[in-house]
Amino acid sequence: MDTRQLQRCNAIIKNKKIETIDLKCIDLTGYLHHISLPVFPNILTKLVNEGVGFDGSSYGFSKVENSDMILVPDLSTAVIDPFRVQPALSFYANILLTDQQRSPFSQDGRQLARKAEETLRRTLGVDSSWWGPEFEFYIFSKVRFDTRTASSYYEVEHAEEFFKNAYHAANPFDVYDDFRDDACKLLKQFGINVKYHHHETGERGQQEIETYFQDLLTTADHIITTKYALFNFAREKDLFVTFMPKPMYQQSGNGMHLHMFLTKNGKNAFYKKGEYANLSMLARYFIGGLLKHGASLSAFTNPSTNSYKRLV
Question: How does pLDDT run across 4-16, given as a tens digit for each residue?
Fold first, then answer.
């Protein structure tokens, strides 16, 4: 147990009059789940030592007959959730098994990120990997859809309509610049620093927010948090946000580009002055590996039919 982190979190509970502890994690498909616990004395010490049980089969983690699992808060991820009416302190949780060793669940996304970083350090001798995501999304004013045996439809209403490329469109055409301003302030409350935001190419309300580089696990947490914040903020504004790869025919699709590099001895391990494109051999092999394993990677990066519609 990290005593300093525990003291910090207990101070937040006391000073901010926190009423609820909220534990969040994702399932195998990336959907966010949470469980809320009313605050009582020493609740965090109990949660760190014992965790809270949950049914892993309902998350798709295991079969019903062996479904008991445990959530344990990562105290370093503590943040006050601005979308809760009662003061709530939110944590991302690590998923453990109920064996005697309380082993980490091998398919927990956060555990996979840690193992990936460990593999990089062990095999390449690097310090860390660094990731900078770009969040592309559409904002719609109304969305209706239905799918039945004999019929289906969808209907989207949007406040914006350009007749040419909308990339970096300015006022009065950039209707949602204030939305993005306020969203970035919210992200700052969650500990996420935004590099910039702007209107994207899509002419029916496409936006982009880009955040700064962080290590793999922190970036993964920030991606889930950013989507959580944008979905909730849009709901407060009676709007609809979608990260769907291709929500509209003949409109630009949403990507989530990831800038990345490795560091060794605190320096960019991909940079080598004088080499081809100033890229080190490690960088060129890294790119080659992505190309070689692109088909396999697409199972994770492009998991739906709609992912491929983005390309047309």
Answer: 999 999 999 999 9
